[in-house]
Amino acid sequence: MNHPDRAAWLDGPASYCSPHPRELSRPWRLVLLGAPGVGKGTQAQLLQHELGACHLSTGDVFRAATRTKGCPASSPPMAAALHFMQRGELVPDSTVWELIRERRACLHCKGGFILDGFPRTLVQAEALETLLRQEALTLDAVVNYELPLPTIIDRLSGRRTCSQCKAVFHITQNPPKQPCVCDQCGGSLTQREDDLSEAVAVRMETYTRATVPLVHHYRGLGTLLSIVASGSPEEILQRTTKALNDRRDGVLHSA
Length: 255
Ligand code: AMP
Prior knowledge:
This protein is α/β, with parallel strands linked by helices. 44% of the residues lie in helices and 14% in strands. The chain has a 5-stranded parallel β-sheet with strand order 2-3-1-4-8, sandwiched between helices.
């Protein structure tokens, strides 16, 4: 599967998606929540394929910025943002918000959108709600992926990513045919800086403090759909699309 490189987002509001998303009569507009390592990014890619919606990951944009030479990545707020990211801490709301606000045209994508990694704090959630109201758009659902903590830590510490095509492997659960070499493009597999153990501890603490309150927030608004994130990526995808379609068809789900 293609992993879209979101580096284009660094070009600002003028950036566009390639290939263009499908034009849908009832596009899905979703937010994905879940602890780091729960498999949100993988589900976002599968959902993008399944639903035709555009996958927008703020984490992908910041990682692209670390690889991009040139002004956006070296602007003072972006340089500061990357230091936060490398330590496993959240980037300041103001920097993240600037990134989203500038690209709000993407929220009108004819294929819908899947926000992955945004919002991450109550401040960001409230800012998004205001923006969506201004743009006359509504969220269909906030999908919350759930998994026990020890499983999450194992997933993060074993995760390896191709430095070229961004394909994701796991050293025991989805190992490459040759150690440290990507099956798809032959690129070298590396461990994300923020998957190293110290940064993982910080990310989990940050998630509990800043992002878990969002689960309660969206449950209160009636938009939360909780999904058990165990099993294969395809099983989790099926669970997700069934819950989404049930929601659209008016079948009640416990969140
Ligand atoms: P992710 O790939 O979503 O786990 O994001 C990787 C890192 O990017 C996070 O640990 C944060 O440092 C930063 N980041 C991504 N999205 C946000 C956000 N919405 N708010 C603050 N920091 C973010």
